[in-house]
Amino acid sequence: MMSEKQGAFTFVLHSHLPYARMAGRWPHGEEWIHEAATDTYLPLVAALHDLAAEGVRYRLTISITPVLAEQLADPDVLANLEAYLTDLRDRAAADIDRFEREGDSARAGGAAFYRVRYAWLLDQLTARFGRDIIGAFRWLQDNGYAELSTSAATHGYLPLFARDSSIHAQVRTGVRTYERHFGRKPASFWLPECAYRPAFIAGDGTRKPGIEEFLAAQGLTTFFVETHMVLGGHPVGKAAGDVVGPYGAVPRRYTVPHAPERKANGQTTFEPYWVARPRVAAIARNLATGLQVWSADHGYPGDFAYREFHKKDGESGLRYWRVTGARVELGDKATYDPAPAHERAVAHARHFAGLVEEQVAGYHASSGNYGLVSAAYDTELFGHWWFEGTVWIKEVLRNLAASEAVALTGAAQFIAEHPPGEVIDLPEGSWGQQGTHFTWMNADTQWMWPVINDAQRRIEEIVARHGDAAGDTAVALAQLGRELLLLESSDWPFLVTTGQARAYAELRFTQHAERFDELAAQIERGTIDRALVDDLCERDKVFADIQIQDFAAREGMAEAPSGALA
After folding, report:
1. CA dist., res. 107 & res. 103, Å (int)
2. Inside any domain, residue 562
3. Does position 446 have pLDDT exceeding 90, yes or no?
4. Number of domains forming the structure of the chain
5. What is the rounded distance in angstroms from the CA atom of residue 379 to the CA atom of residue 341?
């Protein structure tokens, strides 16, 4: 007879890419989507469908940003993805011949592995899921395996927005897009960059609502914050003064030290909390499970058997090497073997499931409470950066589905079944450097924010004067809203700060700013160039049901005056 569960666990997988449709080719542009779908989204959704077919009853939380959902549902993107997969399959086949001619049997075997894998992924995309990746995720939701969360429309960095209208528009567009793709209202919401601001009084005396108030106005019940937002201290895996990327090389150690999970005032990541006046709950990332994957000192992805991400074949671009060692140079990497790597992923999944059981049992024993372990990660870590990661997720879910101590849940489901008992005031912050806004607002990015904030004010004025227009002006107004949402994406300042793609990010930001300005000028003059508008609508083809009134001035208001959803 199964014993009573002592607590619950949920993966929270945050899935996001910036808008890249028709935005150039490798190394930046639409191939970002193709690569992420090939390495992460298709393998993940296939693994989750496989578990369901096996009769494993599991549940997890998957956040899919609206801008990513729009791209994964776009027919042009999907057609290009199919061509991308076909090309990879053909490259692998050519590599088999090349390596066999060179007498390199180890890499010929790796190429054969890739040829089978890419053929399989093509079959998953076309035959199993009918070129409908979003539909495959929706099936998981509708059949009780996944709770799908929404986010701000284009992952805008909400606390730095000057105007409440733009926070509202990002959240409302995100909710509306979710409803269109997934057929129901969302309950949980991923704050872009885990960035939060509480309510405050502006210099003119206006009370600016806390972020949770905009969520409550859309009927959302749950959002996610970083560990330090509840516990205090620095973000997980980041030292003061450092910007640490989540995918750095990690050594071969897997025992995470027991870090304190309870603050002196009693707050803990094992409990959700109501935030401020609306009944919206905040769930923080569990520290120990986060370190087990993210930590540069203790994470699984650095195992020496796993595939090396940073080294590619000079001819085909495929990856044939393994991590090999903690300080092994790229030129000295050993050949990758999928079989032992798979075995390590299965072993690490057992270890992680055991860690979750220990965390749940320990908290239950010390508090008597039915706690929640929330393990939050970027979805793209699994499969893309950590090639074996989707196998690991599958096996973790399989192990925990059989656990006598741990129940698998979704985030909002947990809040509905176990409402918080306390209300807390969250500090302002994010997952970034020192938990502040610095990663997005600094000497390299400060020029972007006046551009964003001026556009936010300008669209309020345009909506006030022209918001009821019809015909060509209405079409231009809708595209004006899209261009502002795309301009507001947090990805542009992030990429500038990290230097990963600075020139590309600056170009994309400038393009959306110029498109916004041209459309705004046309609307203000009353002379619409419909050919230009149609061209921009095709280039920036998102949010077909955008509502320009969402951008109307609303300083100090998170809810519609009538109290209805707005």
Report:
1. 9
2. no
3. yes
4. 3
5. 20
Name the DSSP class of 41. I
CA distance 546 to 484: 12
Query: Per-residue pLDDT tens for 286-315?
Result: 988 988 897 766 789 999 999 999 999 999
Asked if 343 and 454 sit in the same domain, the reply is no
Q: Are 89 and 122 in contact (CB under 8 A)?
A: yes
Q: Do 88 and 231 reside in the same domain of the chain?
A: no
CA torsion sign for 96, 99, 100, 104 is negative
Whether residue 254 is found in the same domain as residue 322: yes
**Cα 63 to the center of its chain, rounded Å:** 6
What's the angle, vertex CA 158, arms to CA 239 and CA 200, rounded to 5? 90
pLDDT digits (tens, 9 = 90+) for 65-102: 999 999 999 999 999 999 999 999 999 999 999 999 99
| Residues tagged active-site | 193, 378
Nearest in space to 248 (alpha carbons), one of 207, 296, 182 = 296
Q: How far apart are CA 224 and CA 194, in angstroms?
A: 7
Residue type present at position 267: Q
When the pLDDT of each residue in the chain is averaged and rounded to a whole number, the result is 90
The answer for residues whose C-beta is within 8 angstroms of residue 372's C-beta and 6 or more apart is: 7, 8, 9, 10, 270, 271, 272, 283, 409, 414, 418
The domain containing residue 181 runs over which residues? Answer: 7-34+53-70+132-435
3 state SS of 201: strand
- pTM for this predicted structure: 0.92
User: Residues 125, 145: one domain?
Assistant: no
CATH of the domain at 379: 3.20.110.10
* Residue 215: predicted pLDDT: 96
Rounded Cα gap, residues 196 and 315, in angstroms:
45
Regarding whether 323 and 299 lie in a shared domain, the answer is: yes
